[in-house]
Request: fold
Amino acid sequence: MTDSNNCYAYFGVYGDAIDPPALSAELGVAPTQAWLKGELDHRRRERRTGHWALYSRLARTAELEEHLLDVLVQMDANAPAFAAVSQRFGGTLQLVGHFHDLGAGLNLSRDVVSRLAFYGVQLDLDSYYLYSDSRECTD
Reply:
């Protein structure tokens, strides 16, 4: 049996001057993930830069486009602030898909492309095809 696809998306910024509480106040929303430059990660290594990220609220089994739309809806709640933060820190809309099944394409409507341009984000798509003959029934 093939595992379900695992997809997620998030808006994120990185930078030495990232101050998560200040960004959260400016954006009007708490981050899903954030840290300061110099904090220790889970392996006890010092973080080289600060980070603030807002993830999709959907289950990881949802389609990649749905995750993207959910992040945009959250950003739309305070669009001018997200656009300003994105411009200031070089915002990224990160899309990640671990695909166990075919069909790992991405289709963005004109509206979505316009919204991405408004926010001034770069789009980063990481797509991993995880099929393996050794795991699948090949009778």
User: Anything to note?
Assistant: The first helix runs from residue 20 to 27. The chain has four helices and five strands. Helices lie at 20-27, 64-76, 79-89, 110-119. The two ends are 13 Å apart (CA to CA).
